[in-house]
Amino acid sequence: MTTPQPAPDAAADPAAVVGGLRERKKAQRRVALVDATHRLVREHGLDGVTVEMVCAEAGVSPRTFFNYFPTKDDAVLGHAPWALDEGAAAAFVAGGPTGHLLEDLFALLAPVLEDPPLGHERMHRAIELAAEHPRLMAHHVAWMDQQKDRLLEVVRARLGAASPHLADTVAGLVLVLVHSTFVRWEAAGGDGDPAGHARDVLADLRAIVTA
Q1: Domains along the chain?
Q2: Would you say 113 and 195 are in contact if contact means Cβ atoms under 8 Å apart?
């Protein structure tokens, strides 16, 4: 098989080209698993579908499935844990990289904002299935709590024990910020850098607070 040649502007950084291709393939496989799960659950019901059935539908092994989703319910909902970089988290806890809390939160959340959700149509299907199966909604709430707990861990470590309530407020604000960012990103047709939309959301939140 002939290896595709990199674009001229990327040729100086082959690792970036390989990394970009790898990430695209991972995203495509993740989408394929979600689509397969949705099709099967629509046909057989949530309890009538197994991980093995999803793997057969998507043409992957169970081991590959569990590289993307911890459970079948996570695949229905399209859940992927927020990818907080350990190095960035350590820098944030230490007061960096800029010393400004909001700017440092953007740096911490960069991997999350670079991993947008699965698109409006798939999210709509997931919401419909969650409405039909209450356990999925409970699973989603639990997943959100897990992401918040991870945020609280690093925010509390930075702010210290003297600011427990502020840490809760910051973590809640981050959840709103990320959700609203992806709503705007999808409304814009999935175009542009989600981080740009995040700054627009933050500007609106500031305007609301100071109004």
Answers
A1: 1-69 (1.10.357.10), 81-211 (1.10.357.10)
A2: yes
- CA 152 to centroid of chain Cα atoms: 17
Q: Which residues contact 98 (CB under 8 A, 6 or more apart)?
A: 104, 107
Helical ranges in the chain per DSSP H: 14-44, 51-58, 62-68, 72-77, 86-93, 101-113, 120-132, 134-159, 164-187, 194-210
- Give just the sign of the alpha carbon dihedral 15, 16, 17, 23: positive
Tell me the HSE value of 148 on the side-chain side, using a 13 A CA sphere: 17
The amino acid at 52: E
Question: What is the rounded distance in angstroms from the CA atom of residue 108 to the CA atom of residue 84?
Answer: 7
pLDDT in tens, 126-185: 889 998 999 999 998 898 888 889 899 999 999 987 777 899 999 888 888 888 888 888
Four-point Cα dihedral 179, 23, 77, 68, nearest 10: -130
